[in-house]
Design a protein that fits this description.
Elements lengths: L5 H17 L34 H9 L30 H4 L2 H9 L34 H12 L3
Helix pairs in contact: 2-5, 4-5
Bound molecules: heme C.
The site of heme C has 24 residues, from helix 4 and helix 5.
Length: 159
């Protein structure tokens, strides 16, 4: 039997084996399998992070201002003067990290309807119970779990 071409196989395998050994599931989960979370109804928060990798505030800022991702500026003013066109439809996010805990911010990004059932703000990490979702977006949250964590990490810094 012919053996597998040595180098190619190794090149493919090494990162996988490495990832498995570290217990992380790196980019393999490109589709970002849905994570379940628990809402704390007393404090209106999701106290546990959605991912094991801690949020990265710098990446979160990029997700927040990205018009195809968070697009938070469509509705919120944010303390990011270098970005033009801030919305004025929603409460300003300056100081949000002083007003809310990370868990309270997480719930408001994941599924703000848990706080206000008639809010205009989209649920950024919810796939069930939504209406009139275009077919190609069905079952897909707007942000990945990691992007949510990054955005939360960023908002926490806005004191
Ligand atoms: C379509 C408009 C819209 C977009 C886009 C939007 N929001 Fe909101 N957001 C709102 C509105 C309106 C509220 C006020 C809450 C309510 O409706 O009860 C709100 C409230 C919030 C709150 C709570 C603020 C407070 O002081 O209570 C947070 C935190 C928040 N949004 C974060 C975000 C982040 C982060 C993004 C981007 C990832 C975002 N929002 C995108 C409309 C929006």
């Amino acid at each position: 039997m012919k053996s597998l071409p040595n180098m190619g196989w190794k090149r493919l395998c090494t990162p996988l084996v490495f990832a498995a050994a570290l217990g992380v599931s790196v980019e393999l989960s490109a589709a970002d399998a849905q994570v379940t979370y628990t809402v704390n109804k007393q404090t209106y928060s999701i106290d546990s992070a959605l991912t094991d990798t801690p949020g990265d505030a710098k990446k979160g800022k990029a997700v927040a201002i990205n018009r195809k991702k968070g697009n938070c500026l469509a509705c919120h003013t944010m303390p990011i003067p270098e970005q033009p066109f801030h919305g004025a439809l929603a409460p300003p996010l300056a100081g949000i990290g002083a007003r809310y805990s990370a868990g309270q911010i997480r719930l408001r990004v994941v599924d703000p309807r848990q706080v206000n059932p008639v809010t205009l703000m989209p649920a950024f990490y919810k796939t069930a119970g939504l209406h009139r979702v275009a077919k190609k977006f069905q079952g897909k949250p707007i942000l990945t779990a990691q992007e949510v964590e990054d955005v939360v990490a960023y908002l926490v810094t806005l004191k």
